[in-house]
Amino acid sequence: MTTRDDMTLTSSGFYVSQEAPITTDDPVPTPSAPAPDILRCAYMELVVTDLAASRRFYVDVLGLTVTEEDESTIYLRSLEEFIHHNLVLRQGPVAAVAAFSYRVRSTEDLDRAVAFYTELGCDVRRNPDGFTKGIGDSVRVVDPLGFPYEFFHDVEHVERLAWRYDLYTPGALVRLDHFNQVTPDVPRATRFMQDLGFRVTEDIQDEEGTVYAAWMRRKPTVHDTAMTGGDGPRMHHVAFSTHEKHNILAICDKLGALRISDRIERGPGRHGVSNAFYLYLRDPDGHRVEIYTQDYYTGDPDNPVVTWDVHDNQRRDFWGNPVVPSWYTEASLVLDLDGNPQPVRARTDSSEMAATIGADGFSYTRAGEDESLPAWKQGEYKLGHQL
Asked: How far is residue 52's CA from residue 55's CA, in Å, rounded to a whole number?
């Protein structure tokens, strides 16, 4: 719960403040051990059920580069990456996420990660040889929110392909940008991530102080990860960046030409939150992938936090287009360190979908007007009217 007393309403329709106005009545205890110094989100390990089908999607369609592969695993990277991989595809029985992986500043930060999570009573495992190829000494944990995290510093360098324009496609993916995680209690998750050194850049709330989502960063962009309210722990999406929005349009054209446009779940469009141009796709296992570009710099220590009203229909899509229900309800399972799916806990706070899309929900374009949306527009936001 929170209050808007210390927030300023802007002419753009959202509120800004100097610190994220998010509090929790059920915080994860703050460890006395210092947190590891996280540089950025670095890679995700995905378990897929059909490795060949996943390879066709991520390599042949999206154009990620194969660094290395064998019969059970494929290591992929984007064009501007110099570490071994941004994405690991591993054959397995259940489609899920095995690790949200972050690079830390030094090997000493691995010691800090062990101490930080051990104090919290988490399952903590360290492998001096790394858990995947191309990655050295690493620590994997199941955090208090139920997510499998990895921390590493030592890596195998590979060729950065930024200058290899002969390899570029019209929809070239240039870097891994962020993760998005689904969790039942967003304020609790946000507070824990702040203890880990993350800063909030944007969030979605209502007048009662219910927090529906929060965006958090370590590198100076809008986010390295976000916490979205819903049944969890689950993975909402992994996001790769392009240089320009025309690259995203080219991906849409390619999907259409290949007669696989049903891989498009949502978009293309412009987010209000993050200001980024976006496209959401589903891979052969249903894992959600966002293609993302043109967010903004957040690296100054006094970077203002942006808070959106949950009823503002421009928060998720700046053009006011509706969000498909699956985007709110479907997400990928996550695994524990033994490879077992984590149990999913239900969200008890209000859901964003029910607040703004459901039969009793409402949205607005201009707050304060008697008519929240024109009659011909309202049906797009109510499940019973969608075709």
From this structure: 5
* The two structure tokens encoding residue 382: 């109510």
Encode pLDDT of 165-208 as tens digits.
999 999 999 999 999 999 999 999 999 999 999 999 999 999 89
Instruction: Report the Cα 250 to chain-centroid distance in Å.
Output: 23
Alpha-carbon span 354 to 358, nearest angstrom: 5
Q: Who contacts 286 (Cβ-Cβ below 8 Å, separation ≥6)?
A: 95, 330, 332
> How far apart, in Å, are the Cα atoms of 116 and each of 16, 34, 87, 123?
32, 6, 26, 11
Q: How far is CA 332 from CA 148, 199, 258, in A?
A: 13, 25, 25
Give Cα 227 distance to the centre of its chain: 8
CB atoms within 10 A of CB 97: 25
pLDDT tens-digit map of 15-29: 777 777 788 999 999
Query: Which amino acid is located at 26 in the chain?
Result: D
CA distances from 223 to 130, 179, 201, 363 (A): 26, 8, 7, 26
> By CB neighbour count within 10 A (0-12 exposed, 13-18 middle, 19+ buried), where does 190 fall?
buried
The DSSP-derived string for 302-313 is TPPEEEEETTBT
The answer to pTM > 0.90 is yes
